[in-house]
Amino acid sequence: DSCEGRCEEGFDAGRKCQCDTLCVYYQSCCSDYSTVCKAKVTRGDVFALPEDDYLDYNLPVDLPTDEAPVADPTEVPTPPVQVDTTPESKPNPEETLPEVPKPTPDGSEEPEELCSGKPFDAFTDLKNGSVYAFRGKYFYELDKTSVRPGYPKLISDVWGIEGPIDAAFTRINCQGKTYLFKGTQYWRFDDGALDPGYPRDISEGFEGIPDNVDAAFALPAHSYHGNERVYFFKDKYYWSYDFAQQPTQADCEKSSPSTVFKHYAFMNRDSWEDVFQLLFGSRMPGANGPWYISRDWRGVPSRLDAAMAGRIYVASHQPRRRKSRRQRKRYNHHRSLNLGFWSWLQNDPDSAGIERDGLSGSTCEMLQSVYFFVGDKYYRVNLRSKRVDLVRPRYPRSIAQYWLDCPQPTEESA
């Protein structure tokens, strides 16, 4: 079969090959897909850098350590038994997160103040790309630089759970279901609607993962034949959990689209198979660990409040003569290289004015970051190296300043 005239039709179970945007991930594309069906690029797919304005992995940075290295790994709790059962996949009803008026705390409670500096309990990005931050009884929706209007809202009014919660993550697949954890139980939501049969015990759906976790974040599978993974953190230990099942391509057609997964699938379409295998390589389904946070996540404190995976992006590096640090114009240099690479990657004739010869002799690297939140600070970690990113200004950074757009404290208030 050919993709001629089929690029906009979506998935068709009656055809032996597919021409929809997810066929590369599911390895079901027609042979002429890459030439006939040109990928549509959204604004979120073409950012050149993460939240930093400049990036240089050659900067010498001394990573802080908050405790002495652990010498005896036998102190770790008994490793859990691996399992191959996961919560079943079900189609998603196309419902939206309900809107409620801004809550007014009663006189006996301290009002929720956005810029109070109190630790957050959980962060997660929903399937529509929105980022949600949970703290105490309330939660916020964040845009690129600050909090969206109408927040905070009570967790109990919108999610049906009395706050605070312990952790949250959203699976990075086409269905994009969101999981909230509290105590011994977890809840699973589909576009803001609670799935039937929930809450469930953590020991039932995630056997081998402890109760009362501190933080969690999810990663995609490198392909349909791989396993999605979730990392859980508690005290000074962490665990990984590999899901045994993924939604089929037919399941995806019954679900509203996941913006986060579409971004990942778009990146995957350009044959980064080896890189994705390295970043998201699979193990046996079930729980693995525990391991020490301080040993494997360099520069990150051993006890976390929250965690969240960032978006995948591409960095390109061009060999250049050694210059002094003052002579390096990191922002403009890396920005031109990245934009040039994206223009080449997309083969987009409409990208007028973008430098196209910046990649001569350069190398490109797929990067995935994870954000760890501790107190009123956060760290960004490169998933491949599992160390705090070497950028300036250095980490940790202020959550209030970089995520919530709170005013910087004056010298008097500090």
From TrEMBL:
<dbReference type="InterPro" id="IPR001212">
    <property type="entry name" value="Somatomedin_B_dom"/>
</dbReference>
<dbReference type="GO" id="GO:0007160">
    <property type="term" value="P:cell-matrix adhesion"/>
</dbReference>
<dbReference type="InterPro" id="IPR000585">
    <property type="entry name" value="Hemopexin-like_dom"/>
</dbReference>
<dbReference type="InterPro" id="IPR036375">
    <property type="entry name" value="Hemopexin-like_dom_sf"/>
</dbReference>
<dbReference type="GO" id="GO:0050840">
    <property type="term" value="F:extracellular matrix binding"/>
</dbReference>
<feature type="repeat" description="Hemopexin">
    <location>
        <begin position="162"/>
        <end position="209"/>
    </location>
</feature>
<feature type="domain" description="SMB">
    <location>
        <begin position="1"/>
        <end position="42"/>
    </location>
</feature>
<feature type="repeat" description="Hemopexin">
    <location>
        <begin position="117"/>
        <end position="161"/>
    </location>
</feature>
<dbReference type="GO" id="GO:0005178">
    <property type="term" value="F:integrin binding"/>
</dbReference>
<dbReference type="GO" id="GO:0033627">
    <property type="term" value="P:cell adhesion mediated by integrin"/>
</dbReference>
<dbReference type="Pfam" id="PF01033">
    <property type="entry name" value="Somatomedin_B"/>
</dbReference>
<keyword id="KW-0325">Glycoprotein</keyword>
<protein>
    <submittedName>
        <fullName>VTNC protein</fullName>
    </submittedName>
</protein>
<dbReference type="InterPro" id="IPR051298">
    <property type="entry name" value="Heme_transport/Cell_adhesion"/>
</dbReference>
<dbReference type="GO" id="GO:0005615">
    <property type="term" value="C:extracellular space"/>
</dbReference>
<feature type="repeat" description="Hemopexin">
    <location>
        <begin position="347"/>
        <end position="406"/>
    </location>
</feature>
<keyword id="KW-0677">Repeat</keyword>
<feature type="repeat" description="Hemopexin">
    <location>
        <begin position="210"/>
        <end position="267"/>
    </location>
</feature>
<dbReference type="InterPro" id="IPR036024">
    <property type="entry name" value="Somatomedin_B-like_dom_sf"/>
</dbReference>
<dbReference type="Pfam" id="PF00045">
    <property type="entry name" value="Hemopexin"/>
</dbReference>
<keyword id="KW-0732">Signal</keyword>
<dbReference type="InterPro" id="IPR018486">
    <property type="entry name" value="Hemopexin_CS"/>
</dbReference>
<dbReference type="InterPro" id="IPR018487">
    <property type="entry name" value="Hemopexin-like_repeat"/>
</dbReference>
<keyword id="KW-0964">Secreted</keyword>
<feature type="region of interest" description="Disordered">
    <location>
        <begin position="60"/>
        <end position="115"/>
    </location>
</feature>
<keyword id="KW-1015">Disulfide bond</keyword>
